[in-house]
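Batch job 17 of 40 flagged for manual review because the log was empty.
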Amino acid sequence: MNAINASAGASAASQVYATRNTYNAEESSDNQHKAGATSDTVTLSDKARQAENKWQELAAKYDVHNMSAGEMRSLSRELFDGGFIGTGEMMAIGAPTSMNEDPFKKHDLLNDMKHTYQLSSAMGGHSKESSELYLKSIEIIQRLGQTRNGSVA
């Protein structure tokens, strides 16, 4: 079941990113050609449009550099429910920050995850599978932050 969810999440996320890249390439091409020239058009499926809208909504809602523990768990669940991640990534993103976690204290989720990964990797704390899962989680959070900041169109 987890493998199915993970590949479905990867598929939905890939579709959103591929759609963005295709649209941007064609938009640039359109700008180079003046009115009257022929150009390619992009047709998005309803599913791709819904995934893109959900991604934009999540990026606007969550600041990956300033989140409470509750927000981290909500984000991980919404990413999972939206098909962007599997259960393993959901658990990595929504994991408690400490044994005595203050649910209201704000954290820099992206940089905390990067730092935790570096520390645990240096101490041999990852299997190949857990390393890949954690890196995928970091990549998703990083892309979400980039979308929020406008660096990913």
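Reviewer: the log was empty due to a logging misconfiguration, but the result itself is present. The longest helix spans residues 2-32. Unflagging and moving on to job 18.
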